[in-house]
Amino acid sequence: MSEATVPRLSSLPARLVRLYGGLALYGAGIGLQVESGLGNDPWDVFHQGLALRLDVSIGTVIIGVGALVMLLWIPLRQRPGLGTVSNVVFLGLFADAAIFLLPTPSHLAVQASYVALGVVAIALATVLYIGAGLGPGPRDGVMTGLMRLGLSVRLGRFLIEITVLAVGWLLGGSVGVGTLVFALAIGPLTQLFTRWFPLS
Hints:
By secondary structure, the protein is mainly α. The chain has helices spanning 12-36, 42-54, 58-70, 73-76, 82-101, 108-131, 138-148, 153-171, 177-193.
């Protein structure tokens, strides 16, 4: 695709709408997967397991873990942006709001639809908020930092996500078919959405 055909966000208000719209949609996606009861994505298996152990909301853990992960940016020489700080502060709030508002499904077909909608929402949300160009989320920044140190993004992401998945499962987080669907679908869906919402 030529540069002339790629729409770009030049105004700050448009970028802010994309950032916060993406974070709200990401929170909704987390809520859908959690409420499905069929398994979360790896990070939210960890968040949920920790929330159960600490007897707090999953959103509270998302905020706390996001802030702690940002400490890893120091040795990786990453610089946070408005999008990074907003991810830490707002993503957990949006996730808690979605979990509160969404009815818990009792039928398998509805549970499956929650998983499908959740994965699609997270893929689109990722493209939206990263594409705003205001800084990656704390977990995304770790991937970028590892890439700068010479570790492939694929290997780095695999090692981190398999670790948080295992720890989260041991803590009681939900692992199931939804986790597998997320792992298989999130990459292709994210790539698909970049056709309509370019990252640069």
